[in-house]
Amino acid sequence: MTIVTEISEILKSSKHLSELEAKIISLMREATRSILSERLESLDKELIQAYLTEGWEIDRIEERQLTFSFGAVSFKRHRLRKSGEKSFLRLVSVWNS
Fold it and tell me: Which of 3, 10, 27, 90 makes an SS bond possible with 47, Cβ 3.0 to 4.6 Å?
């Protein structure tokens, strides 16, 4: 079901304006969490590609959770390693720049 369809259903089923508002806010929060989770994982995969071609390997995949005003967002990220080098999480490096 698309978000437009979900909004239409909420509009049809809500009996009061306060109920409509609460349901729309809940829907938007969930959509935002889902989209952000997906985009963070996609960004992580994009950022590690150059390292993989330089001989780095995926050490492990870690799950992380960040809390925003719209709720908690969970996502997976890759820890990279290479012989003689310190392993790291690339996505964290981007935020600390």
Answer: 90
